[in-house]
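2024-03-11 09:14:02 DEBUG pipeline.ingest accepted 1 chain
2024-03-11 09:14:02 DEBUG pipeline.ingest length=332
2024-03-11 09:14:03 DEBUG pipeline.predict start
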Amino acid sequence: MVSLSPLRSIVGVDLGGTKLALGLIDDTLGIIARTSGPAVTESPEACLDNLYSRLDQAVAEYAPVDAIGVGTASMVDFRAGRVVLSTNLPLRDVSLRDLLTERYGVPVVVDNDANVACLAEFRYGAGIGTSEMIMLTLGTGIGGGIVTNGHLYRGASGAAGELGHMMIDYDGPRCQGACPNQGCLEVYASGQAMGRAARDVARTVPDSALGQALASGEEVDGPLVSRLALDGDAAAVTVLTGIGEKLGLGITSLVNIFNPELIVIGGGAAQAGEIILGPARRVVAERALLPQRDQVRIVLAQHGVDAGVLGAAALAIIELFPEEAPARGRPA
C-alpha cells in the first residue's frame, strides 16, 4: 500500500495501440508510481481482460484509490464514457466508464488518449501561456487534440480530433486498422509508418546500421530507427527526414485551418525530436499561409511518455473534483 499526504489518489490509464501504461497520480499531479506493458489486441475480450488485470493489481497496490482516468486510442463519446470505435484497438461500442465504475466502485472518466495528453501539455506542460493549441501524438497511429479559446474541443459527440486521419494523398495507401480511408497522415508519419519506411531503406542500404540490424534479424521499428538516427546513422536519418516532411504536410493543413499559437508533437514515435521536427518545420515554412505560418510554434511535448497517464489523471481531477484541481502551471 502507498501512503499519500495529498487528499486524492488517482490511477491514470493510457491504453494505446501498442502499450498500456498506468500511473498513480496525486492531486498535485505528482507521479507516485508508474508501470507499463504491451497492450493486448487479439480480441475485444483479451484487450479488456488485460486492462482489468493491470487495474486490479494497481487498485489493490495503491489502495485507497479515489478515481480512475482513462485515455484510450479510440473515438470516445465523452459524455457517455463509451468507446465508439477504435482504429488500432479491437474495441467498438464498449461502455468502458460503466464497466470500470461497476468493477472498482470509484468514479471513472474516459476520453481519447490524445485528448488527455493534450490536456496535460496545455495545462501543465508545453502549452502553458497559450489559448490556441493543437497536439499530435505519434504512436502506433496518430492521435490529435485541439484546444481553442482555452478549452479542449471534442465536437458534437466527443469524437473530434482524429487528426491522423486527414487525407494528404487521395490515391495513397489504405490506412491501417479499422480506418476505411486511404492516404491518411497516419499511413505516412505514425510509428508503424516509420517501421515500414525503415525496412525499405534498410534493404536498399544494407551496409548501414539500419541495414545490418535488418540482416541480423533485429526488429526494425520506430524506437530502433530513432536510436540509430540519434547515433548518426545516415540511413535512419533519411527515414526520419521523410517522416518529418510528411508530418509537415499534415501540420500545414492544421496551421491553415486552425491558426494555432502552438503545435505540440508527442508520443513514442517522436523520440528522435528535432530530427523529425526540423523537416516538419521546413515544410510548414514553405507551404503554410500567412499570417498563420509566422505565428505558430512547433515544439516537442514536455511530459514525454508520461503525458498519457498524467493527462488521464488530470482529467479525472478536473471533472470529478474541480475544486481540488491544480491551477494551470507546472505540476508540483
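2024-03-11 09:14:41 DEBUG pipeline.report The two ends are 22 Å apart (CA to CA).
2024-03-11 09:14:41 DEBUG pipeline.predict end
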